[in-house]
Amino acid sequence: MRCNGKLSTMKRLISWYRYLSFQKRFNCLKLFVQLVWLIILAGTSQTWLLMRQYRFNNPIYKQ
């Protein structure tokens, strides 16, 4: 009786996650949050730069 590979890997991942201590789980979560925060920051800074460029190139916004 063999189950499909995806299910077994999922089970393995779940068991591995259960074996992790709380501290390690917390560290992983912290890393994930930092990554998301970095992505958000990069996106906002990029849009801000684009807006600035648009204002600089647009003669209406020039004083």
Low-confidence stretches are: none
| Nearest-integer average pLDDT | 79
Q: Rounded to an integer, what's the Rg over CA atoms? A: 23 Å
Supply the number of helical segments.
2
> Proportion of β residues?
under 5%
Q: What's the total count of β strands?
A: 0
Number of domains: 1
Would you tell me the structural class of the helices and strands? mainly alpha
Helix content: over 70%
Shape: elongated
Order of helices and strands: HH
Report the end-to-end length measured between terminal Cα atoms. Answer: 76 Å
Largest sheet: none
Summarize the structure.
With about 60 residues, this protein is mostly helical. About 80% of the residues lie in helices and about 0% in strands.
Structure description:
By secondary structure, this protein is mainly alpha-helical. It has one domain (5-57). It is 81% helix and 0% strand. The chain is built from 2 helices and no strands. It has helices at residues 5-19, 22-57. The longest helix is centred in the middle third of the chain and has 36 residues, at 22-57. It is elongated. The N and C termini lie far apart (76 Å). The model has no long low-confidence stretch (mean pLDDT 79).
List the helices and strands and how they pair.
Blueprint: H1 5-19, H2 22-57
Give short descriptive properties of this protein.
mainly alpha; 63 residues; 81% helix
